[in-house]
Amino acid sequence: MIQPPAQHSSERSSDRLLIHLREPLPFTACELYRSGIRTIEFNRPIDLADPSSLDVRGLDIVRLASARGMRVIWELGGLNPSIELTELSHLHPPRAMHGSCDQTAIEAWQADFFLGRCCWRQGPGFMQIRDRRSRRLVKYTLTEPNLMAALRELDRGGPDITANRIAPLLEERLALRIGRFFWLAPYRMVRWPSPSMTV
Q: Which residues of the chain have pLDDT under 50?
């Protein structure tokens, strides 16, 4: 069972974990879920206006926790103008946004959120991404082995990913450039909110 030391990177209480965004973060959302954690909370806002590697790692924990149906208590500290809020609307919504973010935008995000809004799944020889962030369903089917490998790598954090390898994902805003980092938007569904044939 994961029990990161309270004085170092987190504080655990029953099925809830307070994550301190500072180095190192020696756990993944999958490991937290397996250890019994069902609610995570961050000790400070995640800043996407001038993000550090920890901010992007924190956002990725939100993404992967959302895929597992975990409750995420977080705040958005700022937003780079190159990112639209709708591009994050598949994530568990933040409880507050700071900086230039509009409070009505967070209320709309909270009201419209549902699991599976932007997700990917693996098939035999292909991957399919289903994106409803625009309020309409758009499907992308990937069959090119190098692009599928790049998506899997980016899904795991992919520190060495280059723009050329994921150009089609960047073009469709399925991968985002956040500061000097690349971040994969869709998550692989782990806990289906309804029967798979309706998602």
A: 1-9, 196-199
